[in-house]
Amino acid sequence: MRILLFGASGYIGTEFINQFQNVNGIEVICVSSRRPDGSSYSYRELSRMIVDMSPTVIINCSAYVGGLSIINCENRKDMTIQSNIIFPQMLGEICNGSDIVFGHFSSGCIYNGYPDGGFKEADEPNFTFKSNNCSFYTGTKVLAEELLKDVPNKYIWRIRLPFDERNHPRNYLTKLMSFDTLVNCDNSISNRRELVRACLECIINGVPFGTYNLTNPGYIRAYEIVEMAKKILKLDKEFKYFEDSETFDEFRKIPTSNVILNTDKLASVGIKMTPVHDSVEWSLKNWK
Question: 14: burial class by Cβ within 10 Å (0-12, 13-18, 19+)?
Fold first, then answer.
């Protein structure tokens, strides 16, 4: 099996590289989503490059997330559109025409709220440009999913607020501990190591194509994580909490998603992730 990995230098992509080292029978080729000069590939250039490499699978970890904050996407809409809509659309079309399996990373932030049992994969996104209630980043992730609907051999993996045991600017736990003001709402979040393992299991085990919520079962609040950090890491810091998302959005000046995702579909294909409280606790106890 030959896999082309786009976005290998990013927060999720680097974890793929780590885990590929322990998987036999897979050849991985890391490919940039942009030309060496930083400009965008044309469809013809991208298609020729991919066909020449003859991959079995393409994994797209590349996206524009505004650096350390999606707030920056509001000021770089051109980059956000190119990276989050146009590029995955091109990859999807190339895969569709060449019988290549496509794995694309989306976001659970296309939803907002708390339906009974959490949002399922088939639920219509409610945090979109159509609803006029989303951030620019979130809106682009919804549009990308819509443009990929006709690609049959694909996985769309929805993740939220990735974290693990390694201190990193993109780690959700690192972010929480560095902020002074937090919103204290229920949220689904994703352990980076576990979500990448789940993606590999999808590909290696040939689970049915489709969309999967890759979040740790259950939900957790910022306050709970902070209290764990105070106990385990001896974090000596006080935080200000917003108890509702509307007030927090006014403070941040950007709409934010607070949501619980349903993970039954992932479990139904035999892929299990650790319950969220256990996963966060383990990460903090093994903090590096």
Answer: middle
Instruction: Confirm if 136 and 74 have CB atoms less than 8 A apart.
Output: yes
* Residue 70 pLDDT exceeds 90: no
What contacts 134, CB < 8 A, 6 or more positions away? 110, 112, 127, 128, 142, 255, 257
Task: For 103-117, give the DSSP string.
Answer: EEEEEGGG--B--TT
Tokens of 102: 């496509």
Cα dihedral 207, 212, 216, 217, rounded to 10, equals: -90
Torsion of CA 281, 282, 286, 288, to 10 degrees: -70
Only one residue has tokens 């620019």, namely 136
Q: How many helices (H) and strands (E) does the chain have?
A: 11, 8
Q: Are 147 and 84 a contacting pair, CB within 8 Å?
A: no
Q: How many CA atoms lie within 13 A of 135 on its CB side?
A: 28
pLDDT digits (tens, 9 = 90+) for 158-205: 999 999 999 999 999 999 999 999 999 999 999 999 999 999 999 999
Q: How far apart are CA 128 and CA 135, in angstroms?
A: 8
Place of tokens 């990859």: 91
Beta bridge partners of 181: 240
Ordered by where they begin, the domains of the chain are 2-285 (3.40.50.720)
What pairing do the DSSP bridges indicate for beta strands 101-107 and 2-6? Answer: unpaired
